[in-house]
Here is the input.
Amino acid sequence: MVGNHQVIEHYELCTSLASGLLERFHAVGDEVRRVGQAVHAEIAEARRALAAAYIGPALTPEALAAAEKRTGFRGFTKRDPIAAMEREGTVLAHAVARIRGDERYARRAILVGPEGELTARVNECMELLAPWEEECARFESLDGFLVLLAEGYDTPAWTRSFWESAYWVQWKQGDAICEALDLADFGDDVLPAYRPLEAKRREWREQVTAARQKVQDVHDLVQEHDRAVARIPKLAEIYLDAAAGVLAEFLARADVELLSEWVGDEDRPVLVALHRLAGLQAKARFCGEMGEGVDDFTGSLQDRVRKYRRKTIKFRRPKHYGRHHPDSVLDEKFVAKAPKYHGRSDKVIAQLRRIEAFDAYGSFDLTNDPELWWVVMTGKRPGSLTPSLRGWYDRNQGRTPILRADVAEDIARAVAEAAVAGAAEDDLGYVS
Here is the structure.
């Protein structure tokens, strides 16, 4: 039997242990997701690199035909990037010739230079505009003037009613403006004095805008010319990159193992790229399954925390004071296994670090089952937080990955040791 105060202390301890584990596994889950996101970014880059390896260094009909043959992609036949490149080259060449024949381009320095004709016209218009800006500012700088103007104050358009506070505010502002300008009435004197000035200012503003537009038109013409001239010699590179991008989108849906069967050993760039892509896809799968396992485990820990808090509240009730309870009321299993659960988080991080750091993609023969990437990357059997993967290893005991002849000895040794390792490691199924 155990005293009630001991039960309370026990469940307070359980709550503390479970809360600490929950915080720790939340951090583990965040790290698994971070690595997974980074791997997915690498996969996109790897697909692009594989596509580039298939096409080769130059965009030629032969290269495109070979890429289609080795990947099963038929998009280049339907939408020929070489034909598109040649068409754009013709369009750009015509644009350059047209611009060079434009008088504005030929006289650009004379027109828009610091002392250019069009530049001088802009400056002249600005000078002629300045007095009208000053005259209008004499009215518009007065408090409330622009609001009164917009509302049609002291004209038939003004619709304010006398019971509105704005009616009296605007009336006061109108009188103050008349006094400041030494004029008798806003509608009869201020507006007739302001409107001709504003009309002249608007006229000269339009002149400034028109003059500036002519300057901008010349600049636009020069920029169009320069962009075309700069792009023409880069078209081969641009369309090669674009073709690789299109092929990469297709490869996102392709079977890497099947692709490897269509490539000869002599095509090393493609083989290297295929191995890297296959390895990164395995990493993404493993990170995904580890993340799901960690999330499930944190979910069970959250349930534990809530359960232990309810237990603590229950045994603190007055009716339990002084009572004794059977030992079975305690959850000693959880207390005993808590340190092992803590160690499990370290194991997950250690496995994640090995997966993250692994880059010996060429060591893995692509005829292997993709699940075998795990033992090659980590040197360990899968744990209980990756149940689907662990189930595959349990069903395929004794199966070891085929490693390429040039694999490093340390990788081969780790794989061999893991292949014969028992399944008992990380066998903590209590919290679920």
Notes: Residues 2-56+257-419 form one domain. The first strand starts at residue 2 and ends at 3. Confidence is low (pLDDT under 50) at residues 420-425, 427-432.
